[in-house]
DNA sequence: TTGAAAGCGCTAACAT
DNA sequence: ATGTTAGCGCTTTCAA
């Protein structure tokens, strides 16, 4: 359809969306010049660009992203899937995943990508074909390891779908990003040792699907050995939530030979344990030292505030995005740091 | 281009995306039948549909959402903008907004919409023309009231952009959704009174941009009066964060005539205040009763765990989505409930 | 119930 | 530096 025909149609009174043809007519240039000017191509002279921009503003014109992306072939969008517990509501989501989601959105934006976010939990409704549907250029998967069918689903997807990245574990060999768990565990153990503790226990399941816990235990063992101390077998507690698991583990620990220091595989468990300790009247850090992992904000207000190992969230988001987009990206270990609060007594 | 031509091109060895034409050929039907079958239109016979679906599966075909939406005119997407502090990182975001974000995404999904999420903070980079760009059918704005330029930006947008919804306040008359603050305040005051407290103070700024705090104070005043008690002027504390403001307010309160009960306009402030109280050796709920507002998860692990007024998050998300989409939707007050924890002593 | 044809609004290849 | 033209892949008339 020519510009002339469109004009006639418009003048006939039909309500239409303003298109680049309308802008072209108003600016006295061709439609493709409008496209180039608004896309910021260098071949357009400053004067032409100004005229086009003004005409666009006057008409309230915005580029239709669907048409632009259909034609250009890309989407400039990254899909972020947050896996949650089956049947669970948003209140039950570990705040760690929210923080990670936030930094991933920010990292995507920094690279000029938009973020399409879905929370997925029910096995029969899992969906990850965002790239095939041209809804996104890549897919990032984060969330709870407790929902096995969901991880399985996305792991399978990644077999014939290169542009994916997983937090923790999943997908093909080179598609995961996770914390520097060995380093984190070392930081935790060294801090407890500095406080004078020698009998230090690790809390968290090590053989399960939360592969990062296994790494944290491995790091704990290495660090203990390096300090000339004997690593203890990992302690676990059963419960629906991490919180409950932490309480249960704490209860079990207090029944036996009491350790001087405790390294929890995640803050959520440590927080539950702290509650149990307080109820039992056991003083932290006086009677026992506690270190967590994840850098949860809640730890800042717990009793006492929780010393923890925190991944650099900003980097975590950036790495997820670049692994998802580039596939060739190599850095996949997120640096960690010790956040000193008050659940371990001062170094001697 | 005819089906025949496409076939020739494909056989010439050119790598192309699988299209509905390919599926049509394989299924032995026309391209439009493929479209109809996959869209689930009722006019297609079961046998035809099965053949099409099988061909699609065999070829790994998925509908290109850009093309489908360009043609059909919709986007089936809702943009969610989370306003954050200028220069702030994800760690500083109030977890309340994350929970609200989660429930809004869930509500959008329940209505068949996808969620395009952006975190926005810097004044020069604010963007909300998602509808004009045909990136979304509606825009929902949530986040911190502390970023004035951002709220101003989106409020302006809503003047000529009907499909918007704001959490708290903003936009045109009928575009906001917020907690039932009057009811929430009443719940809080009644609980403190039940514990035997009579001198009850309210903490939070009432004349500011956080309009909900004003409503909570109003509700506090009404509830106090209804109980035959004298409302006190609102107490505020200065600080960068809500946490700091809570501490400062607490410090100020302790300098004067000590109240028996405290109602905080938000949990984040209450949590800061609780820390200060603990440091000063003042027992909660023994020496003073505390109630917050927001239902923050952190409150479950504070010292003591924080009794709070919680909005029904699932409903909050649903209301935001339906206000954004329908414009005519009427229900905009989110019901609240009292979450009993341990910062107020048992009713007498 | 299905097929043929039009065209959504844009970008990019090819002209000039 | 700009105009002309083709066509991205689909949904939706219109016809049969």
TrEMBL record, chains A, B:
One GO MF term attached to the UniProt entry: transcription cis-regulatory region binding
The UniProt entry, under InterPro entries, shows: HTH_LacI, LacI/GalR-like_sensor, Lambda_DNA-bd_dom_sf, Peripla_BP_I
Residues in domain HTH lacI-type?
Answer: 18-72
A Pfam family hit: Peripla_BP_3
PROSITE patterns, per database record: HTH_LACI_2
Keywords, ordered alphabetically: DNA-binding, Transcription, Transcription regulation
Signal peptide positions are none
Q: Which SMART domains match?
A: HTH_LACI
Give the top-rank taxon of the lineage listed in the UniProt record for this protein. Answer: Bacteria
PANTHER family according to UniProt: ALANINE RACEMASE (PTHR30146:SF120), LACI-RELATED TRANSCRIPTIONAL REPRESSOR (PTHR30146)
Protein name according to UniProt: LacI family DNA-binding transcriptional regulator
The lineage is: Bacteria, Pseudomonadati, Pseudomonadota, Alphaproteobacteria, Sphingomonadales
């Amino acid at each position: 359809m020519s510009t002339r025909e469109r004009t006639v149609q418009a003048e006939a009174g039909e309500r239409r969306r303003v298109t680049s043809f309308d802008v072209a007519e108003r600016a006295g240039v061709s439609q493709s010049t409008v496209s180039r000017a608004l896309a910021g191509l260098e071949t357009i002279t400053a004067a032409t660009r100004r005229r086009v921009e003004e005409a666009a503003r006057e008409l309230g014109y915005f580029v239709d992203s669907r048409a632009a992306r259909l034609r250009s072939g890309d989407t400039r969008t990254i899909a972020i899937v947050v896996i949650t517990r089956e049947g669970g509501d948003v209140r039950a989501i570990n705040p760690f995943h929210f923080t990670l989601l936030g930094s991933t959105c920010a990292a995507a934006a920094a690279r000029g990508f938009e973020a399409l976010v879905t929370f997925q939990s029910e096995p029969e409704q899992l969906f990850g074909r965002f790239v095939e549907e041209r809804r996104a250029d890549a897919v990032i998967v984060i969330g709870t390891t407790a929902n096995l069918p969901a991880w399985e689903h996305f792991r399978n997807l990644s077999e014939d779908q290169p542009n994916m990245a997983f937090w923790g574990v999943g997908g093909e060999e080179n598609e995961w990003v996770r914390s520097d768990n060995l380093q984190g565990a070392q930081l935790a153990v060294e801090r407890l040792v500095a406080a004078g503790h020698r009998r230090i226990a690790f809390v968290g399941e090590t053989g399960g699907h939360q592969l990062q816990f296994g790494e944290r235990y491995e790091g704990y063992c290495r660090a203990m050995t390096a300090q000339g101390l004997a690593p203890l077998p990992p302690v676990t507690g059963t419960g629906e939530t991490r919180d409950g698991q932490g309480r249960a583990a704490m209860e079990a620990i207090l029944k036996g030979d009491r350790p001087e220091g405790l390294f929890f595989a995640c803050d959520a468990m440590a927080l539950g344990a702290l509650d149990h300790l307080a109820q039992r009247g056991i003083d932290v850090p006086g009677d026992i030292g506690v270190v967590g992992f994840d850098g949860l904000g809640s730890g800042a207000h717990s009793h006492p505030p929780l010393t923890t190992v925190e991944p650099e969230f900003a980097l975590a988001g950036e790495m997820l995005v670049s692994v998802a987009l580039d596939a060739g990206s190599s850095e996949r270990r997120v640096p960690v740091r010790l956040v000193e609060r008050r659940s371990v007594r001062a170094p001697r």
